[in-house]
Amino acid sequence: MLHYLTIPVTAFQQNCSLVWCDQTMEAAVIDPGGDLERIESAARRLGVSLKAIWLTHAHIDHAGGTGELAQRLHLPIIGPQEGDQFWIDGLPQQSAMFGFPPALAFTPTRWLHDGDQVSIGRETLDVRHCPGHTPGHVVFHAPQIKRCFVGDVLFAGSIGRTDFPQGNHQQLIDSITQRLWPMGDDTVFIPGHGPESTFGRERETNPFVGGT
């Protein structure tokens, strides 16, 4: 079975997640934005072996620790989609602008596209490309446990910002309604910030996409 643990990191309290297969105890880390010692300590406490980094998008609070962690543990960097290359290239500038520790730019080992899959141990997750917050944003859907790691596409009671470079409000709404909602009302999503919710609850009550 697939398990996960959410670890808020950085001053932005970004929800980094460890996801692992309980048969192999191999794990991936989703969006290691920073506080790498906290992430590695959690992995040791759980007894899991980190095998990959998966990125939803390349904003500093989600990707700031990626280059260092990949170098330190020799991990492949999986994702996001190529549209976020300019955000990756700008990570050193982003870190200085927001007062983060110096961030390393990097080249992902593998870009992700809509309909791809990623695997850890014996578990497989589906990838959906969900642009709008950033052009290359992806989400990781684990239908076997009815969970989806959505980065900054959707939040409990809110949606991702679209006022950043190459953000697009209509694209974001389309991503939510056309790619997240079909995953099912009972699917729990892990957002990039704040508490978990379900797609069904957001369809009913979220003021930005409720009723869609």
From TrEMBL:
Assigned keywords, A-Z: Hydrolase, Metal-binding, Zinc
Entries under SMART domains matching the protein: Lactamase_B (SM00849)
Xref: InterPro entries: MBL_Glyoxalase_II, Metallo-B-lactamas, RibonucZ/Hydroxyglut_hydro
Cofactor(s) in the UniProt record: Zn(2+)
Region of interest (Disordered), residue spans: 192-212
Domain Metallo-beta-lactamase: 13-193
Protein name from the UniProt record: MBL fold metallo-hydrolase
